[in-house]
Amino acid sequence: MTAVDPPISREREEHWQRVWDALDPWTVPPGRLEPGADARYLLTMFPYPSGDLHMGHAEVFAIEDALARYWRLRGHRVLNPIGWDSFGLPAENAAIARGEHPATYTETNIATQAASIRRYAVSFDFSRRLHTHEAEYYRWTQWLFLQLYERGLAYRGAGWVNWCPQDATVLANEQVLAGRCERCGSEVVRRELTQWFVRITDYADRLLDDMAQLEGRWPERILAMQRNWIGRSEGVQIRFADDGGAHPGRSAHLEVFTTRPETLAGVTFLAVAPESATAWDWCAPGARAALAEYREQVATRTEIERSAVGQTKTGVPLGTSVRHPLTGEPIPVWAADYVLAGYGTGAVMGVPAGDERDAAFAAAMGIPQAPAGLAVLPGAEPDWPEPDEMVQQLLTAGAGERARSYRLRDWLVSRQRFWGAPIPMVHCPRCGVVPVPEADLPVQLPDLRGEQLVPEGVSPLAGAKDWLTVSCPACGGPAQRDTDTMDTFVDSSWYFLRYLSPGRTDVPFDPADARDWMPADTYVGGVEHANLHLLYSRFVTKVLRDAGWLETDEPFAALLNQGQVINRGAAMSKSLGNGVDLAEQLDTYGVDAVRLAIIFSGPPADDLDWADVHPEAMHRFQARALRLARDVGAAGASGASGGFGASAEAVEVRRSTHRTIAEITELMEMRRLNVVVARLMELVSVGKKAIDGGPGAGELAVRELAEGVAVMLSLFAPYTAEEMWAALGHEPSVARARWPEVDRALLVAEEVEAVVQVAGKVRGHLRVPADVDEQELRRQALRLDAVRRRLAGAEPRRVVVRAPHLVNVVP
RNA sequence: GCCCCCAUAGCCCAACCGGCAGAGGCAGCCGACUUAAAAUCGGUGCAGUCUGGGUUCGAGUCCCAGUGGGGGCACCA
């Protein structure tokens, strides 16, 4: 164990934390923005309070803090708030295991994380912090639910839902990954339940089309993921008329959705989802027993089994038929479990000649592969008509119209667990479902703990008898509260708005505050929420806009996804034993070394393998930077009297400084943080050489360099930067300094090196004035021996001149 | 099956609008300091850019095809 002391000791870190606490440079007081303020809203995905901060947090916070500090130094008014996404299952499960209230676990962890964030020196505005588990917050989450309800966007629906047996609750589609619960990995089963849904599908087109605004400002892959998730397809809805006699209760038509209307001539059967009401309606009395049995058989299969591609197709005939809309031919109707109840109309036209799945089903059921008269060659598609022609025919025949279908489903928001915001609804035997009046919010959670929280298929809230019983807001009679709580993704779908108006008890947020700050300029966070939090937040923003609360369509103008932190090629996990503990790293190397190493290891969006992160290497850099500042500080500001030295060396130092400032500014705008650190390393080396063998530490140009380093380094290594700033004789804090100005005159070199190529290959170099004209450069290039030798007296066919950098002679 | 992203030195990564392939770091090697080692300091090499075509005076960069890797969606009609 050769623990090396970090350049910044624990004691010095604590010293600076006290200084920052006292100076409070990061708080933006609530209320109107001062006129003329150039506002920037930097948002970071708020943490879930599980234990202490981990490596993932270390990365996001290092990235987001660099941006926050950069913007502040550039003179922006920066809102950079922090809070906790503090409802959720881990706290509830811990509470059951320990016989406690979930708030105990939650609040302990929040305190731990807040202390770690302070040590990690993230420049958050803590004055606006929020916690989604507190009644003063979830009151407004409930308000949001009522807004959705009033606008007809929240509804109670019966249907087959995803149920996680491990977590004992239903899940939204977005929370099911390959048939498993995204949280615990259990295999999800289907249950038929009545639940609260939110009509996100009403916004499918806007969610899709508004992505045009995000193009180029959000990572392309997130946009692609959302596009896939929404899954819009353009097609036609076709009506097939009933072919039988009178069927009581059955509609006269069976509708299907297809993206390939041109294949209509190849239809040999229609198939409907077995569990749908349509299947029952279209089932002949004699086939009902078979359908009922088939339905039971289907219900026993898990999601994973059912959704597997390429399995043997099953189904039962329903004993009824429809007529082909153009030919009038009879077509039998089947129930088949490869047809999904929730997509399109829950019914498809079976075209074995045009669709592999239909072909497999037809083969399994002994249905003809093609109608009589349709020529089908093996291995080739029939000669279908033009899709548009077919659509015209259908429109003319009144048998169909253009339609869109979506993969996106409504958002299931009920959860049968305790640690969430209660759904603010009352069930009255006389009035039915009645919303809790806004004035009665919040509907507070009852005080349950320990075993009272053990899930038994219904929410633990159902066991809180006193809490449960309430008088109906409409008729005053005895009624019961809704016992479910909301999906925690509802909590996080609007928290970025609450930050804007902290402490307000009359509104969730002030629309005037939202005008000041929304949309967030940059949102920093992980990719894992692409189809969850990010989609829900976009949706809620649009709803609140429609309701008059917001003026923006989109909540996050730009999105910066940091990569995952992995170790030796694999995700850090207990079972692999490759976890790296953040607190240990901080103790061993110091905060700045860890932050620098993380930033330096690669582009923010790339996955970060801890095997490639070298905090110890940053010590050398930090030590050099500190020495630079101390040498300059000790030498005093001799230049204060005489200005910058006129020596060529001093001018070169200034050129380096200003070139670097210009370059780093540009790199910061492009979020190329890793390259910024590399440039700072170079500049420190220039400074060191200037002190050791150049104009010396007393030269004002060297001081200028050292001060520039201190300010720019503060984005990544705030402690080291403060030490430098102090050594240079400044009052704290460097956080209050200004971003260094670039002297453009110093960017223009007097002389540059021009490359001379012959046939595209470098054959010589020339030192020329930076403003050399093309003719002169061409003349000099052609005089070079290396060029004349290769031309061998012949006239060049062509000479390309790009003054002052390049000449290419083509023989 | 459909869609998106990526590929530069042993490793992590640079290379502005197409213009000398190399800034920074890790590891390696050599040297200084040391009784010795660690730490520290100084120095140093290494690839022609995944493959094959194309455009161009000139391609890591643009275009086409492919390979490899990562990711999303998927019995979605």
What's the topology here?
Layout: H1 10-23, E1 39-44, H2 55-73, E2 77-79, H3 89-98, H4 102-119, H5 135-150, E3 154-164, E4 169-171, E5 176-177, E6 180-181, E7 189-198, H6 204-209, H7 220-230, E8 233-242, E9 253-258, E10 269-272, H8 277-281, H9 288-299, H10 303-307, E11 315-323, E12 330-336, E13 347-350, H11 356-365, H12 387-397, E14 400-405, E15 411-412, E16 414-415, E17 425-428, E18 432-435, H13 465-468, E19 469-471, E20 478-481, E21 485-486, H14 488-491, H15 495-498, H16 511-517, E22 522-525, H17 533-546, E23 559-561, E24 565-567, E25 570-571, H18 582-589, H19 591-600, E26 608-609, H20 615-635, H21 639-642, H22 648-669, H23 673-693, H24 700-713, H25 718-727, E27 751-758, E28 761-769, H26 774-783, H27 785-791, E29 798-802, E30 806-810
Parallel strand pairs: 1-2, 1-22, 10-12, 22-23, 24-26, 27-30
Antiparallel strand pairs: 3-4, 3-7, 5-6, 7-15, 8-9, 8-11, 8-14, 10-13, 11-12, 16-21, 17-18, 17-20, 19-20, 24-25, 27-28, 29-30
The protein binds one RNA strand of 77 nucleotides through α7, β9, β13, α11 and β26.
Can you characterise this structure?
Helix content is 37%, strand content 18%. The protein has 811 residues and is an alpha+beta fold. Among the domains are: 139 residues, HUPs (Rossmann fold); 173 residues, Valyl/Leucyl/Isoleucyl-tRNA synthetase, editing domain (Isoleucyl-tRNA Synthetase, domain 2), CATH 3.90.740; 132 residues, Isoleucyl-tRNA Synthetase, Domain 1 (Orthogonal Bundle), CATH 1.10.730; 61 residues, Ubiquitin-like (UB roll) (Roll), CATH 3.10.20.590. Helix 2 crosses helix 19, helix 20 packs across helix 23 and helix 23 packs antiparallel against helix 24. The protein starts with 9 loop residues before the first helix and ends with a strand. The model has no long low-confidence stretch (mean pLDDT 92). The chain binds one RNA strand of 77 nucleotides through helix 7, strand 9, strand 13, helix 11 and strand 26.
